[in-house]
Amino acid sequence: MTTPSAARRRTLPRRWREETGSMSLFYAVCLTGIFMILGLVVDGGGRLQAGSRADSLAQEAARAGGEQVDPAQAITGTAIAVQPAAAQQAASSYLHQAGVTGEVSVSDSGQTLSVTVHTTYHPVFASLLGFSSMPVTGHATATLLTHAEG
User: Fold this and answer.
1) Per-residue pLDDT at 92 exceeds 60
2) Is the model's pLDDT at 109 over the cut of 90?
3) Mean predicted confidence (pLDDT) in 2-20
4) How far is CA 105 from the centre of its chain?
5) Which region holds residue 39: left if phi is over 0, alpha if psi is between -120 and 50, else beta?
6) How far out from the chain centre does Cα 82 lie?
7) Per the confidence metrics, is the pTM higher than 0.85?
8) Where are the alpha helices (H) located in the chain, listed in sequence order?
9) How many Å apart are CA 70 and CA 106, to the nearest integer?
10) How many Cβ atoms are within 10 Å of 68's Cβ, its own excluded?
């Protein structure tokens, strides 16, 4: 007694019988390529989002530090300058509360506060290839304006 698949094989032309399994190889190659592209999209997008978050955190920390104006100079109207120690402390505190590390610096004139944030992105697909984390850096600068422009 012959099985239906054996009977079907006998009725197929010889050239078709020789190609048995070639579609399985084609699908395996295509699926591998699709997963690689999917991994690039997911991990690339995640890395971009992590970079955007790092920039946002740096901007917020710079704003927090920029609010530390020296009241003695501001009240008398002689200058509007940031208290360097208080600004660095406020920005560093903001970064600590956000759970990231970074550097904060105030310019010599006290008019500019720069913040750099360091964090990591943990990829989804690239972790399968041994990439457990990717460093991400964000940067922002806050400048105090001493008069309204316009």
Assistant:
1) yes
2) no
3) 60
4) 23
5) alpha
6) 30
7) no
8) 4-11, 14-18, 22-66, 71-76, 84-98
9) 13
10) 20
The rounded distance, in Å, linking the Cα atoms of 27 and 44 is: 25
Report the C-alpha gap between 95 and 113 in whole angstroms: 14
Q: Residue 53 region, left (φ>0) first, then alpha (ψ -120 to 50), else beta?
A: alpha
Whether 104 and 113 have beta carbons less than 8 Å apart is answered as yes
Q: Which residues contact 39 (CB under 8 A, 6 or more apart)?
A: 124, 125, 126, 128
Q: At what angle do helices 22-66 and 84-98 cross, to 10 degrees?
A: 150
Terminal CA-to-CA distance of the chain, rounded, Å? 95
Q: In what order do the strands lie in the sheet with 134-143?
A: 101-106, 112-121, 134-143
Local confidence band at 43 (pLDDT 50, 70, 90 cut-offs): very high
